[in-house]
Structures are given as structure tokens and as C-alpha cells.
Specification:
The chain is an alpha/beta fold. It is built from nine helices and 14 strands.
């Protein structure tokens, strides 16, 4: 059975640009679309959720982009992690209500950074969950780092690393825009949707420490995230538009961007 890795962006699960609080109505619709897609098109699924506005705000307040060196930053890392856990706990019952057999696997127990390199120490747990027919649920998080105590691990990186390890057929990023654009569609009404792109034509040196955004930098970030993952396509769709996630999961024609 083919494996899909699905990343639900924090910008669609939370009111990212307002209070940063969880949006249960949108989460419920997305869960329903996932359930319908898996019923009509059976597949294995690894689910990743983004952090959202509240978590990003906590990380920024403690200046965690380069790690957690000071006691205040270590405390901020813990508060950021607790906020991620809170979002996971809010999402879990909604997924369960739609008969999605989700099991949470906290990223800070699954990954660590040693000598600047990301290592996965919990791959067997993901494998066992998949063999049982379960849906592993992970997220971006603060992970242990042997040089800076803690580091930010984005949900985007979690998605691409797991896709590579478990040989996923496709990664779907459900975001708050229709896909990749040649400029930011939120500030430029003339921005054009990039419906298809090739990874081998994209610069792979872009920064990947932050989450995928809606500017033309997104292409470079995806290419950098995927540089070690072969034969995996990436699809970006607007999770705020009803039906598009289900269409993507069932390989139907859908408005969005496909990167191969």
C-alpha cells in the first residue's frame, strides 16, 4: 500500500495571524476530508501538524532561532514545546471522532540534533504504527541539540525526513494559499500560481529552518528539504478551501502546485 505524508499547516489549524488559537471548525472539516479520502482511496498515512501563531510567537519571544543557550531560552523552549503539545491534544479528539486511528509520537522524543545533524531515534515507532494500520501524528517541535541545548525542528522538515525514510509516494502540504506563487499573493494581486515545477531546476541552498511561507522562497525551501529524497513528489494545496485536501489525497485534479 502506498504511503502519503500529509502536513497540515499551522496557518489552517490555528488563527495564525490573530490570536493564534486553535480552529476546531476547520480542523473538523479537514479530518472529515481525510476520512473520506482514506475510505475511497486506501493508503498509509503519516500526519504532521504545524505549530501555528501561538507557538511561533513563543519561540520568537525567547529568540530561539539559533538555539537555547541561556536559562531564559531553555525555559522558553519548554513553554514552546508545551504549546505544541497543547495543539496536538486539541487535534486528537477531532481526528478520533472521524474514526482516524491516530497515535501521537512527539517529535522531541523522535529526533535529536548531534553535531549539527538531524538524527531520528524513533523510526521504529513510526514503522510499528504503520504496520498496525495506525496513523502516526507528529509535529514541529523543540528538539534536543548537543550544541545549543534545544533547536527548532520544523514540521516541514519532519515531513520530508519521514517521507524519505519510509519511501513515501507523495508529500502533501495543506497551506493557507493555493500553492506556490512567483511572489507573495497576499501582497501582490498579480502573483501567478506555479502549477508545476521540477526540483532539479530549483536552487537547493535556501534556508530550511523556518516553516514554508507563501513567497517565491518556498520553491527553494522545498528543494533544500527534498535534496536527499528521491522519487517523491510534493503537492501544495489550499486547506482552507473545502474539498481540495480530499482531492489531493485521492489523486484527483486539484488547484495547487505539484513539484517533482
Amino acid at each position: 500500500m502506498e504511503l502519503t505524508v500529509l502536513k497540515l499547516g499551522g496557518s489552517i489549524l490555528t488563527h495564525k495571524y490573530q490570536s493564534g488559537e486553535f480552529d476546531p471548525v476547520t480542523a473538523d472539516r479537514l479530518a472529515q476530508e481525510i476520512r473520506q479520502a482514506l475510505t475511497s482511496s486506501p493508503q498509509q498515512l503519516i500526519l504532521i501538524h504545524g505549530a501555528g501563531g501561538k507557538v511561533h510567537r513563543l519561540a520568537n519571544e525567547s529568540n530561539l532561532k539559533t538555539g537555547a543557550i541561556t536559562p531564559a531560552q531553555i525555559d522558553g523552549s519548554l513553554k514552546t514545546h508545551f504549546a505544541v503539545c497543547e495543539l496536538t491534544q486539541q487535534l486528537l479528539p477531532i481526528l478520533s471522532n472521524h474514526n482516524l486511528p491516530v497515535t501521537p509520537l512527539p517529535a522531541n522524543s523522535m529526533f535529536l540534533i548531534k553535531n549539527g545533524q538531524l538524527e531520528i531515534v524513533g523510526a521504529e515507532l513510526v514503522e510499528r504504527a504503520l504496520k498496525l494500520g495506525l496513523i502516526p501524528l507528529l509535529s514541529g517541535d523543540m528538539v534536543f541539540d548537543d550544541q545549543t541545548n534545544f533547536s527548532i525542528l520544523s514540521g516541514d522538515r519532519v515531513a520530508t525526513v519521514l517521507a524519505q525514510i519510509f519511501k513515501a509516494k507523495k508529500i502533501i502540504f495543506a497551506s493557507d494559499v493555493d500553492g506556490l506563487y512567483d511572489s507573495d499573493p497576499k501582497t501582490n494581486p498579480q502573483a501567478k500560481l506555479i502549477k508545476q515545477a521540477k526540483l532539479n531546476n530549483i536552487d537547493t541552498t535556501a534556508d530550511t529552518t523556518s516553516s514554508i511561507d507563501t513567497t517565491n522562497q518556498m520553491l527553494g525551501k522545498i528543494a533544500a528539504l527534498m535534496r536527499d529524497a528521491k522519487n517523491i513528489s510534493v503537492q501544495i494545496v489550499n486547506g482552507l478551501v473545502a474539498g481540495r485536501l480530499e482531492q489531493a489525497l485521492t489523486n484527483q485534479s486539484v488547484i495547487g502546485s505539484l513539484i517533482e
